[in-house]
Amino acid sequence: MTRRVAILISGRGSNMASLIEAAQAADFPAEIALVLSNRPDAEGLERAKAVGIATLAIDHKAFPDRESFDRALDAALGGHDIAFICLAGFMRVLSDWFVQRWAGRLVNIHPSLLPLYRGTRTHRRALADGVLVHGCTVHFVVPELDAGPIIAQAVVPVVPADTEESLATRVIVQEHRLYPQALRMICDGTARLENGRVVFSRGWDASGTLYSPADAERNELQ
């Protein structure tokens, strides 16, 4: 069964583009049915329109509080028969009401190896701490920020000459690889949320999703 997926964005939508590209494969278990933004001028809306995907802007500034915006968002998603939501640079903290309503069907990608470096400025913080590896995480969304059960992670090495910008560039490459893999897993039933934990089935092997530092260095630093 092909699942109808909505991507929520606030800006240019680079992870959105990787999901759209992956979903064009004949065997991909998801259809990107809607791209929705809380910013009417988000560049990603035009990118989605250009490839024939339905788009919608719901300006959060038009609502008196967070939950009223989220209820309008929920109604729009229901109107498009959406099964799963991918957050891709969506710069809004969602209300507990919305997160609980979409529990197990709402995922996000975060630019760190959670539970390390929740929140913002993750690359700067990783460099300041002198870590040897960094990366990104796809997780189910829960009311607590960046604390949801982990679906998949990708690792990149931190090298001596790294700056915040160079590290971010390598991490985003892995984000573009990891997010489509994780979406495939939740849409085909390989990964699901059960009693607050991610349950894997069908003999899934973590080595198929978790990139090693050696792989990342070989692929991205040459």
UniProtKB/TrEMBL annotation:
Pathway: Purine metabolism; IMP biosynthesis via de novo pathway; N(2)-formyl-N(1)-(5-phospho-D-ribosyl)glycinamide from N(1)-(5-phospho-D-ribosyl)glycinamide (10-formyl THF route): step 1/1. It comes from Microvirga terrestris. Belongs to the GART family. NCBIfam families: PurN (TIGR00639). Its EC number is 2.1.2.2. The record marks 146 as: Raises pKa of active site His. It comes from the Bacteria. The active site is at residue 110. This is Phosphoribosylglycinamide formyltransferase. It catalyses: N(1)-(5-phospho-beta-D-ribosyl)glycinamide + (6R)-10-formyltetrahydrofolate = N(2)-formyl-N(1)-(5-phospho-beta-D-ribosyl)glycinamide + (6S)-5,6,7,8-tetrahydrofolate + H(+). Catalyzes the transfer of a formyl group from 10-formyltetrahydrofolate to 5-phospho-ribosyl-glycinamide (GAR), producing 5-phospho-ribosyl-N-formylglycinamide (FGAR) and tetrahydrofolate. Gene3D superfamilies: Formyl transferase, N-terminal domain. (6R)-10-formyltetrahydrofolate binds at residues 66, 108. Residues 4-183 form the Formyl transferase N-terminal domain. The keyword Transferase applies. GO terms for molecular function: phosphoribosylglycinamide formyltransferase activity.
